[in-house]
Fold:
Amino acid sequence: MSFDPNSKIEDNEILFRAFHYDQWDHSENRVTSGVFNSSGSISVDRDGGRIESEIIAAFRGRENYTNCGLVKNTAKFYREVNCTLRPDPIIPVNIYHALVDRVNGVGTTKSIARNLSKNSSLVIMAKSK
Amino acid sequence: MQSIERDKFDFKYQNNKYWIPSNKEFNDPEEWGDSTTGSFYWLGEYQTPTSVVEHNLERKINEKYNLLIEYFKEELDSVKSRFEQYNKVVRVQGKELNAMKKEMNLQKLDRIAAYQNNWNGEGTYKFDEEIISKAKFILLSTDLNRQPKIFPTNRNTIQIEYEDTNNKYLEVEILRNKFIVFTELYGEGNEYEVNSLDEVIKVMNEF
Structure:
């Protein structure tokens, strides 16, 4: 099944976000909201019909992401917390790349970041080095 | 005439009154007996055996009640003393825990300070020394009541957090020239800026 990098992001798509080991909150067992805290647009990767092991391998195969962990949220949830999603494929490096912003603005608010962190699921833990 | 036997006395009922037929004469009131022992020689014209029994019952209840009060007072003293002991232990352990957290936070801050560009992929950079130094000031402040959790954010700032189990959350983001405070109480978010380190510590202690 082929993936169109510029296709509209559907609600049922899963979006993946990388995090560093020091951004894991061990007492709450989830990432800190700082992972989603951004003045600029937030970078995520669409699942694009891939299985998780493929997605992890793709992330970690990239430069500067060797030790990263991954969390995921549905596109629907991003929209529920007032975010807009748009495909932003980086061809040919990462055709699954997408950007997230708050409605009528760039980046996220602290409230959105906290909602995203609280509702994200761990895909793979970051390496502590 | 009705007759009832109670406490070895034969009470007679006549003309709507109880009375004790007595062959004995008492000159000394002391000999009338003690109202609390069950003797009824003192029984007066308007007193019935029922009122005497009630009186004795009330006295016994009072005695038991006083004993119970004494018992509870002793128990309360004992609980207070144990509570003070536990409190002392908790305070000591709290201080030790806080010291450990401070040490861990400082180690983490040293790690963050050593991050290089792209520490979390593209768009992440080496941390500004000013931000690290402000975070260290907060963690080392003797005015700070308890150590927070600290995290690096993807926009190269430091975020310090308190999160209570009771739906209370405080977040302070340390930027180069200001601090952004975000609080969430029972799902209600509030965001504002403060400018000085003293204000930040005050906000954290008030949480």
